[in-house]
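Structure tokens please, single chain.
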Amino acid sequence: MTALEDKLGRYTAPSSDTEQEKQDRAERMVRKAVESWSGFDGVGIRFLPKGSYKNNTNVRADSDVDIAVVHKGFHYLNDDALRPSDKIVRHPLTGKRYEGADFRAELEAAMRSAYGSDCDTSGSTAIEIAENGGRVKADVVPSFEHRKYYYDAQGRVRYFEGTTTRRTNGEWIINYPEQQYDNGVEKNERGTGRRYKRMVRILKRVENDLVAAGKIEALPSYFMECLVYCVPNDRFNHGGLTPLTDDIAAVVAHIWSQTKPDGLAKDWYEPNGIKPLFGPGQKWSMADAHTLALETWQNLGLK
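Here you go.
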């Protein structure tokens, strides 16, 4: 085994058992804080773990927990793609509680009551619960159910079901974490011989190294997951015997070639299969992906 292959093997390691235990404890504590808060009596709520924690793409020493606290009392919608005759009738909400910013305010109150000074509400999106000896950091995201309507191949009205979050500046962010999870499992288990998530962890670890060395600016962890997801399955090993070095070389080369200015990455989608990866409002660009691929290749000394 080469020194690089040994290094990549270490980089594929998920959260340790101790970290996983702290992640699970953080999730349980958030649930308990919400469920015991009297301000939510009579309000339907569900908890949706998401991000690297849910998708099992955490790397060691980078094991924060993301939990969407989703209001189930009503949903927001986008029916812009529908003809006027098919627009969704918006019925008045009865017994409505905590629409828009009000839900966040109540969730902040619940978190402050449970965590005191460990609760940071200054962020624009998530309410942050600080880590301590028994739990990892938790990002608690006040969310609502959301439906994006479209026509299927037969011209019937359908919708994608996701979540939406109102940032403190009034901007709304829509995500599809459940589709992301399902598609990631499919690609990992049946599409790539369980190599997809291993390649995601490697790219995340290398990105951490590049940031620490001052080679690039930090990129969102989710971006690395998106980039590897967009690599075709035939670039990954299927028999379990191909060296990790070969796989990461194929993955990085594909990302680099497709993120040139005239590359096909402009048509890539996030792992949820719904949101364009390089669409409006994203925190990254094709140039970021191209630079990351080049720096990764050089950092690992790939050939």
